[in-house]
């Protein structure tokens, strides 16, 4: 029995085995990946797996998961094997006739009579919000194809972090995989900083986001001086006492921002170091996600497939993303709309709305009510909603709320209980937030003290 077979139930293994056998029988495979950090990390796992099987491959990123848009993308190659990662379960209904379609997903979905091989973590008792992401599903598929693909674990970890499934502790199938392949990395519990110098690490820190320090060199210098640390000192060079002093100072900053325990816990994380990669797990995830958010997905993918000449371009795109994101967060803070049970804002870029929502919800706004970010297009408005694990434990399920509210205004939506998204007709934003606010009120979500 292979290691992966011991980690998952037999029904899931059998489905993955059938999918692997179909893949091995085809000369060409098309991969369709959701455009974000999890989807792009999953794409790296899939491409490396397929190339090792000597397959010809084609990679496409997908942003819109609306039925017509999804069908148009998939039907570009209707006769070829298509593998969809980090999406697809809820969209299979729009390509019901396709049989050579493998879906590796973890989102909530509505079952349909489609002929696709729809392999969703949730159908096998796995928590698709915190216990398995798109990269997790790609990883177990890859391991079923061949155990030698275990060296792709860093990219599974990258996707897991990008999807925030490490927040509050790694669990579920994610933890089982990490425990099984722990020999592939060293683990160090440390402050969640990334970058070559402490000054850069603080200035470009977005997770955590330190108000007045992130994106503010003078603020970052001040806190380093108070901790008697050098601007050019590397994070890894700090001794335990220096780490303790800096962490205490940064924790105080988060407390002053009225962050919840969920965010404060994220100040410290497991930093994994891999034998053949120069980046820590946090840096790897941030770089892949950052490139994806500025439309440079393929740069990161090509680099990690072996094209080392792209390193400079990849890191430059990462810094561009960080700079843009930080600016958006500060600007958005001045324009937050408040309702009794809901907060909302307008994002300048659809690719950034989800990440802005993440950071605002965790670090910058009222923790007692979820937030929704809108990006208004020519005909439709995309939206990203975020809550907290604390709110979910009180009964919040943004996936069901957005699915219902989007449909009522002529759109569609869904996702996770703590994070969801959707698309609605342009001009329906006011009606939509009023509807969501009413649903939250009827469900008895706690009203914020600050209105």
Architecture blueprint of SSEs:
Layout (H helix, E strand, L loop, with lengths): L2 H5 L2 H16 L2 E7 L2 H16 L3 E7 L4 H8 L6 E5 L15 E5 L11 E4 L13 H12 L7 H10 L9 H9 L4 E7 L6 H6 L13 H10 L13 H17 L4 H5 L2 E7 L6 H13 L3 H9 L5 H23 L3 E2 L4 E4 L3 H15 L6 E6 L3 E7 L2 H5 L4 H11 L3 E4 L3 E7 L3 H14 L9
Parallel strand pairs: 1-2, 1-3, 3-4, 4-5, 9-10
Antiparallel strand pairs: 6-7, 8-9, 10-11, 11-13, 12-13
Strand order of the largest sheet: 8-9-10-11-13-12
What's the pLDDT, averaged over the residues?
92
CATH architecture verdict of the largest domain: Alpha-Beta Complex
How many H/I helical runs? 18
What's the β-strand tally? 13
Structural class: alpha/beta
How would you describe this protein?
This protein has 451 residues and is α/β, with parallel strands linked by helices. The chain folds into 3 domains: 3-185, inorganic pyrophosphatase (n-terminal core); 188-330, no CATH class; 336-442, Diaminopimelate Epimerase, Chain A, domain 1 (Roll), CATH 3.10.310. It has helices at 3-7, 10-25, 37-52, 67-74, 134-145, 153-162, 172-180, 198-203, 217-226, 240-256, 261-265, 281-293, 297-305, 311-333, 350-364, 389-393, 398-408, 429-442; strands spanning 28-34, 56-62, 81-85, 101-105, 117-120, 185-191, 268-274, 337-338, 343-346, 371-376, 380-386, 412-415, 419-425. It has a 6-stranded mixed beta sheet, with helices on both faces. A 5-stranded parallel beta sheet has the order 2-1-3-4-5, with helices on both faces. Strand 9, helix 15 and strand 10 (371-376) form a beta-alpha-beta unit. The radius of gyration is 21 Å and the shape is globular.
